Amino acid sequence: MRLYGIPNCNTVKKARDWLARHDLSVEFHDFKKHGLTAETARRWLEQSEWSKLINRSGLTWRGLPDERKQQVSDNASALALMLEKTSVIKRPLLEHDGLLLHIGFDEAAYTKIFNL
């Protein structure tokens, strides 16, 4: 199982704290240190709508010029943005064996995922 995100993100911190409290070991993939492969991003886009993967309320999105925001309208344009600016991806993403289990953090969802 792998958790994708950036360590200073508050939602990622909540997820990691929850996992630690429940003694669950999950590999952490830091976008800032390890980047994001096109293959991984494409896999997510096959499993979820691009609009759910792009965090349009975050600072990175809000900092984009309006013209750039308007260009993001499908999987291909979302993929380009996700690879260019990984901070625009909604965090954290929980994945197991290539299957995207959850986007963001929700205690009830994690409880169900981990059968607690």
Give the low-confidence spans.
none
Radius of gyration: 14 Å
Q: What share of residues are in beta strands?
A: 5-15%
Strands, total number: 4
Task: Write up what this structure looks like.
The protein has 116 residues and is of the alpha+beta class. It has a single domain (2-113), classed as Glutaredoxin. Helices cover 49% and strands 15% of the residues. It contains 8 helices and 4 strands, in the order βαβααααααββα. The chain has helices at 10-21, 31-34, 38-47, 50-53, 59-62, 66-71, 75-84, 107-113; strands spanning 2-5, 27-30, 93-96, 99-103. It has a 4-stranded mixed beta sheet, with helices on both faces. A hairpin with a 2-residue loop joins strand 3 (93-96) and strand 4. Helix 3 packs across helix 7. The protein is globular. It starts with a strand and ends with a helix.
Attribute tags:
116 residues, alpha+beta, Glutaredoxin, four-stranded mixed β-sheet, 8 helices
Brief synopsis:
By secondary structure, this protein is of the alpha+beta class.
